[in-house]
Amino acid sequence: MGIRVYKPTSAGRRNASVSDFADLTPGAKPERNLLRPKRKTGGRNNQGKITARHRGGGHKQKYRVIDFRRAKDGMPAVVDSVQYDPNRSARIALLKYADGEKSYVVAPAGLKAGDTVHNGPEAAPVVGNCLPLKFIPLGTSVCCIELRAGRGATLCRSAGTQATLMAREADWAQISLPSGEIRRIPSVCRATIGQVGNSDHMNVRLGKAGRSRWLGRRPHVRGTAMNPIDHPHGGGEGRTKGGRHPVSPQGKSAKGGATRQKRKPSNSSIVRRRKSRRYGQLKLHK
């Protein structure tokens, strides 16, 4: 797993790099029974209104059905192959259970074809195994963590992410998330041992605008280049800096503004909040 840099044969190639895909199993093909059609929305909701800007186009993709629950206990599974998934930054592993059933899971770093993984309370705390938090030793790195038992993995699913199991008390476990937040989670919730693979994903440089369009990302237009009817920063004679603190098209603060609900039910589960950028700036100015 690493980054491959192109020779500068053109302006786009000069600044482009790609993953070397060394962690993938050569010759592996997607499991047809686990593929589903994927329709594109262009950032529009069921009323046809744009709710997510700068989306549209992109290469056609098929969705891989991922088993985030890992509820098949007591049955070993052999890793058939590690494959590329166009729908996420992480790699996925195709598991083949002893009864012949196949499923995709998010592949932790170090998992390779031929390895055997287990699910359930009896599983050993080794890379690739999925078991409840109350059976995982303290200080272990985990990923693909459930927030509610049986609902499937929600946290730490993207490339290179991991959390650390800090403590256990009664029916709760405390985990330290990549953002620095420490959170309480029911100890019956499951997690996968290890760190999500493809950690070099963040170091890939697209190199040209076309590669961004292949991913379904449309151009991002500055607010100062718009008219006043389209953006709060728009209008004015000649070039301006906006004339106010940066805001979104809806007028909400774009830097340091609070976006979390004040009375969100899960607030009681947060032991220590992550350090926000705004808090750091305020502390710096004192």
Q: What is the annotated CATH architecture of one domain?
A: Roll
Distance between the termini: 44 Å
- Shape, principal axes of CA atoms: globular
Total of DSSP H or I helical runs spanning 4+ residues: 3
Identify low-pLDDT runs.
279-286
Query: Rounded to an integer, what's the Rg over CA atoms?
Result: 22 Å
Instruction: Determine the fraction of residues in helical runs and give it as a percent range.
Output: under 10%
Strand order, sheet with most strands: 9-16-10-13-14-15-17
CATH topology of one domain: SH3 type barrels
Beta-strand percentage range: 15-25%
Instruction: Count all strands and give the number.
Output: 17
Mean pLDDT: 92
CATH class of one domain: Mainly Beta
Report the structural category: mainly beta
* Secondary-structure element string: EHEEEEEEEEEEEEEEEHEH
Can you summarize this structure?
The chain has helices at 11-14, 209-214, 277-285, and strands at 3-5, 17-19, 35-37, 62-64, 77-83, 92-97, 102-106, 116-117, 130-132, 141-143, 145-146, 153-155, 163-169, 172-176, 182-186, 190-193, 270-272.
Task: Describe it.
With 286 residues, this protein is mainly beta. It has a domain at 3-39 and 59-201: SH3 type barrels (Roll). The protein is built from 3 helices and 17 strands. It has helices at residues 11-14, 209-214, 277-285, and strands at residues 3-5, 17-19, 35-37, 62-64, 77-83, 92-97, 102-106, 116-117, 130-132, 141-143, 145-146, 153-155, 163-169, 172-176, 182-186, 190-193, 270-272. The strands form 5 sheets. Strands 9-16-10-13-14-15-17 form a 7-stranded antiparallel beta sheet, with no helix packed on it. It has a 4-stranded antiparallel beta sheet with strand order 7-6-5-8, with no helix packed on it. It starts with a strand and ends with a helix. The relative contact order is 0.14. Residues 43-119 form the Large ribosomal subunit protein uL2 RNA-binding domain. InterPro entries: NA-bd_OB-fold, Rib_uL2_dom2, Ribosomal_uL2, Ribosomal_uL2_bac/org-type, Ribosomal_uL2_C, Ribosomal_uL2_CS, Ribosomal_uL2_dom3, Ribosomal_uL2_RNA-bd_dom. Residues 17-57, 210-286 are annotated as: Disordered. This is Large ribosomal subunit protein uL2.
